[in-house]
Amino acid sequence: MESVLTEAVALLDEAGEQALTFRALAQRLGGGVASIYWYVASKDELLDRATDHVIGAALADLEALPAHEDPIDELRAMAVTLFDAIMERPWLGAYFMRNTDVQGNALRLYEKLGQQTLRLDLTARQRFHAVSAIVGVVVGSAVDLGQEPPQEVLDGAVGRDEFLGRYAQTWRELDPADFPFVHEIVDEFDGHDDIEQFRSALELTLAGLRLQAGA
Amino acid sequence: MESVLTEAVALLDEAGEQALTFRALAQRLGGGVASIYWYVASKDELLDRATDHVIGAALADLEALPAHEDPIDELRAMAVTLFDAIMERPWLGAYFMRNTDVQGNALRLYEKLGQQTLRLDLTARQRFHAVSAIVGVVVGSAVDLGQEPPQEVLDGAVGRDEFLGRYAQTWRELDPADFPFVHEIVDEFDGHDDIEQFRSALELTLAGLRLQAGA
DNA sequence: ACCTGAACACCGTTCAAGT
DNA sequence: ACCTGAACACCGTTCAAGT
User: Fold this and answer.
1) Torsion angle, CA of B127/B130/B136/B137, rounded to 10 degrees?
2) Structural contact between residues A172 and B105, judged by C-beta atoms closer than 8 angstroms
3) Which among A33, A151, A164, A200 has the fewest CB atoms less than 10 Å away?
4) What pTM was estimated for this model as a whole?
5) Domains of chain B
6) Which segments of chain B does DSSP mark as H helices, in order?
């Protein structure tokens, strides 16, 4: 079981979601395709369990984090750690927290984030929404980040900067009268750092939360 | 071409992403499978174009919106309208803004959102990040909302409330000492409204943005 | 308890051929 | 310019059968 998940994650990491087929996985495990069905009932369950497997590592990172006096500072540190852990695994976004019956680590991680909101002056509903919002920013940013490369970048035929630059170029050719905003931000877009984009979105959410909690 | 996209969207709306196959689409169009390849080069391009097709309708909704004096109020109204438009189309989240060469409507929508940030006292980078964050909240929430039902709900065998309630029940059985946060929010989770969750995440982001802009 | 080969019912995509 | 049937190389899943 353990090795099924380990190899599944390895396959996902090496070549992306579409590379994880039962046939490829069986070959790596040195067995037949049907064997995998003894461990999981479907591909969906395999992905759910693979997700929880890597979330387990992220949870360990989270538990190694030093405590902060300010709960919002601690939420930030946790969100950044979580983002780092799943950054290179965009496939994870679609499965994280989808089935907490199978994803015990995801549930524990959710709990750990949520405990910080218990230290803030909020209603239960506000706490629920706050944690959902933070998880949303982390997962959403990681998914965005991972879906960007449209094949040629994955092949290594075109670098990420060149890819962004090509887009930026077509944007620059748009009529500035019709697209003033696109022209305003095209230089920011060109060669932009996804991590900064995530940090910025997180900061907006945390600032809103701090305001809400009156902290 | 127009009818290819219309039927593709109809198929997606009726039965979800997995129901859109070239064979099913060809049958609806009363032709052969290979015909579709005269209009699009691949299934990916079909999804890109189908996405832009429905974003066109959302864009029209946006343009019908009354102007607000406050740019942040206008951003809120736009985000809510966009959310409503894509709420029932979670498949869209994975494709929105993925290829603006093909998605002219998505680009125009991005521009329209961005123009509101031009009215705020921000740097170009802050504007770029702000629009990314807002789009992220909208798309992320819509995707979450759509991925939830795990088959039995889609089949109509189990209602959404019952599905949530079942989860809530397993959460209630967790040890309160280990899961204080889960216990704190389980009643909020049970029967919760996804739209409220989205509105709440949006409000946190907009509050942060207002603070940043000093408005 | 754990694994297997072979089959089943699908996919997206291609291609030579038609009008 | 537009469409087609038939094939190709895959999929996830099932099942009777093995140890």
Assistant:
1) -150
2) no
3) A151
4) 0.93
5) 68-213 (1.10.357.10)
6) 2-15, 22-29, 43-63, 71-87, 104-117, 124-147, 160-172, 180-189, 194-213
Give CA separation, A116 vs A119, A149, B111, B198, in Å.
Answer: 5, 35, 37, 21
- Cα(first)–Cα(last) distance of chain A, in Å? 46
Residue in the structure block whose two tokens are 């406050």:
B70
Show which positions of strand C are touched by protein (CB under 7 A).
2-7, 10-16
Q: Which of A85, A110, A111, A80 is nearest to A97 (CA)?
A: A110
DSSP code of residue A36: G
Q: Average of pLDDT values for B149-165? A: 68
Asked if residues A162 and A168 have their Cβ atoms less than 8 Å apart, the reply is no
Is the pLDDT at B12 greater than 80? The verdict is: yes
Q: Dig out the tokens for B65 from the structure.
A: 């919106």
Angle between helix axes B124-147 and B104-117 (nearest 10 degrees) is: 130
**Which positions in chain B touch A144 (Cβ < 8 Å)?**
136
Is there contact between A31 and strand C, defined as CB under 7 Å from any strand atom?
yes
Using CA atoms, how far residue A121 sits from A50, A136, A199, in Å, is 36, 22, 24
With bands split at pLDDT 50, 70 and 90, how would you rate the model's confidence at A152? Answer: low
State the nucleotide closest to B46 in CA–C1' terms: C12
State how far the Cα of B81 lies from the Cα of B83, in Å rounded to an integer.
5
Q: Give which of B185, B207, B94, B208 is closest to B144, Cα–Cα.
A: B94
**B116: distance to nearest CA of chain A, Å?**
9
Mean per-residue pLDDT of chain B: 91
CA distance A94 to chain B (A): 8
Q: What is the pLDDT of residue B118?
A: 98
Residue type, A75: L
Reported as a single tens digit per residue, the pLDDT across B111-143 is 999 999 999 999 999 999 999 999 999 988 887
Q: Are the C-beta atoms of residues B103 and B55 closer than 8 Å to each other?
A: yes
Token pair belonging to A182 = 């696109």
Cβ contacts (< 8 Å) between B101 and chain A: which residues? Answer: 170
